[in-house]
Write a structure and sequence with these properties.
This protein has 2 helices and 25 strands. By secondary structure, it is mainly beta. It has a single domain (4-295), classed as Neuraminidase (6 Propeller), CATH 2.120.10. Helix 1 (155-161) packs across helix 2 (163-174).
Length: 298
């Protein structure tokens, strides 16, 4: 079978070093770490920075963003720096809350009382609720007397208020799937499994409907994205589009000398088509960071 190799339809050069990217919910803009000093919101087609905010002064400048949670409506973000990894007593753990699109400064908030960020699950509509390793206890971020705190929730509360999400997370935890991507607006998880058993798969799970599919792959992937119909599997120097039946629908080529760092899917707008967006960087100095855009559904 001949597989089409697709070159970028558009390239945007970024003004700063970034290694983490995700589409901002309810928009066709992307959120990026702003070097090691903050977060920014960028129009991927023009490179125009629509919003930029620094970490609070108390947030460590040494590690940047290890992970973030995005509100379903795209107006809030919480960024995490894990410090010494799985040591919950580490004083190097930091968390910061951002009001996206706003001039309100970022605020330091307590790091949640979890062991590690690995396999973090969260949902954020009215409030941010999260847990580590896909299993209880669950914590809600709430403002108590003017201060942010993570409050432990009774497991019955999460089942009553977030039943579909809890059914999906229980499945992921019970079957040992590793969570790789969470889309709050589209309400799906992307996961991997079988990396220690020899049969490797990547999968999609839509929590409102429990629609789930996975595909076997031996690709040494670096990141996952999906439009619900296919899985975009990034390796160092390309992105492979896999359909639920395991067919490679296309290969999206990365320019020579660049490496993939992150990827996501953008919706169509009045002026731009739906697109796969890839964050890529040069391998040699001076480092240059680009957004590579590939048209979809054309």
């Amino acid at each position: 079978m001949i597989v089409n190799t697709i070159l970028p339809h558009h390239t945007t050069v970024l003004d700063t070093y970034s290694y983490r990217m995700q589409r901002c919910p309810n928009s066709a803009l992307v959120l990026l770490n702003d070097e090691l000093v903050g977060v920014k919101l960028v129009d991927p087609w023009s490179g125009v920075v629509r919003w930029r905010e620094a970490y609070p002064p108390s947030y460590t400048p040494l590690g940047g963003t290890d992970m973030w949670c995005l509100a379903q409506d795209g107006t809030q973000l919480v960024a995490f720096f894990e410090g010494d990894g799985e040591d919950p007593t580490s004083t190097d753990r930091f968390a910061a809350w951002f009001a996206v699109h706003s001039e309100q400064p970022a605020q330091e908030i307590p790091f949640p009382p979890i062991r590690r960020l690995h396999n973090l699950i969260y949902i954020w509509d009215d409030e941010l609720i999260l847990a580590s390793d896909r299993v209880p206890p669950f914590y809600a971020l709430r403002g108590i007397n003017g201060d942010w705190q993570f409050i432990q929730l009774h497991i019955i509360y999460t089942r009553q208020h977030y039943g579909d999400w809890r059914t999906a997370t229980a499945f992921l935890g019970r079957t040992g799937r590793n969570i790789q991507h969470i889309d709050q607006e589209k309400q799906f998880f992307l996961y991997s499994e079988g990396w220690q058993k020899g049969v490797r798969r990547v999968g999609y799970l839509h929590w409102p409907t429990q629609v789930q599919w996975s595909v076997q792959t031996d690709l040494p992937w670096r990141g996952l994205a999906s439009d619900g119909q296919q899985m975009f599997v990034a390796v160092k120097e390309a992105v492979h589009a896999l359909t639920p039946d395991g067919t490679t629908a296309a290969i999206y080529a990365i320019p020579e000398g660049y490496r993939v760092y992150d990827l996501d899917v953008l919706p169509a707008t009045a002026t731009d088509p739906a697109a796969l967006v890839v964050l890529a960087q040069t391998l040699a100095s001076p480092v240059q960071t680009k957004l590579l855009l590939y048209h979809l559904n054309r």
